[in-house]
């Protein structure tokens, strides 16, 4: 099995494990402080397109889908890509290359970033 595929499966299993702990009442897991500071935001003062993804994943694990969307809507795109690569890595990558998926992904990310900068989200 490809090492990348194992890594993505590990990530998905870990997220599922956190979800199970959360639904069993172990809320402390999702409130651990994360020492991550975005280097782009630290240097420029402006958020990058990925700012808020960690919080959005945390909200998803808590079952707060609406809050996750308003934190960073790219969380659903990232999750869908992670799941598809974990299940069918070769097919996903070939489909992305044939259907100009990387270009569409870039347009979506840049569009979100511009929207976020204009409206101060």
From TrEMBL:
The chain crosses the membrane at residues 7-25, 67-89, 101-119. Pfam families: DUF2752 (PF10825). Keywords: Membrane, Transmembrane, Transmembrane helix. The keyword Transmembrane helix applies. InterPro entries: DUF2752 (IPR021215). The keyword Membrane applies. This is DUF2752 domain-containing protein. It comes from Thermodesulfatator indicus (strain DSM 15286 / JCM 11887 / CIR29812).
